[in-house]
# Entry
Amino acid sequence: MPHCGGSCCGGPDLGGTRRFFGKEAARYGRSFERKGPDAAQQALIDLVQREGGPRGDVLDIGCGVGPVHLSLLGRGVGHATGIDIAAPMLEEARRQADRVGLSDRVDYRVGDFVALAAELPDADLAVLDKVVCCYEDVDAIVDASMAKTHRLLAMSFPRDIWLSRLILRIVIGVSKVFGGGFHPFLHDWRCMGQRIADGGFELAQSARTLAWQINIYRRPTAERASA
# Structure
């Protein structure tokens, strides 16, 4: 498989990411309550539904306050597991699950998904919504995600166009100065797509917003096994 970016010496330092998103949890929760999923999240949800929706459980990696998995649960998914590095995000996700009456169908785990992956249940759908651009070792998180899903891998990441790359470089520069230890990462998205293909998945659905690319990958062997 191609090497698309990662840590050379041990796991990533996620302390800055944990602090940054922990401070944003309440704001994300208020936004979800007022507006529902954002445009990229709604596109991801709709594309998953075009693929027949999850036929089993959902693993929502970097789930934040829960807009994707709570929306899918509301459409009939049986169970979801949400993982996030920031405990305040999961506290807010639990509150949102209680608010919509879905708390009995979701479990939450706090921590680094790559480190926790062996302990987590497999799923029919794994979701990486705006996660790969916030994780240094993109190879590790993509590989772990593919290993945990039986059928679908859904993700959103910055569009691979010059304007998005320029904006992201500016955000990275500003974040390194003022971000308290957190900054996003500009990975090679084409390389990532090739790595996913080499891992046995094919691109099934795609959409885009102004800033985000949304891709749904399908494991063809799973479709043949269920035929």
About this structure: Residues 15-219 form a domain with the Rossmann fold fold (CATH 3.40.50.150). The first helix runs from residue 15 to 35. The radius of gyration is 16 Å. The beta strands are 58-61, 80-84, 106-110, 123-129, 149-158, 202-208, 212-218.
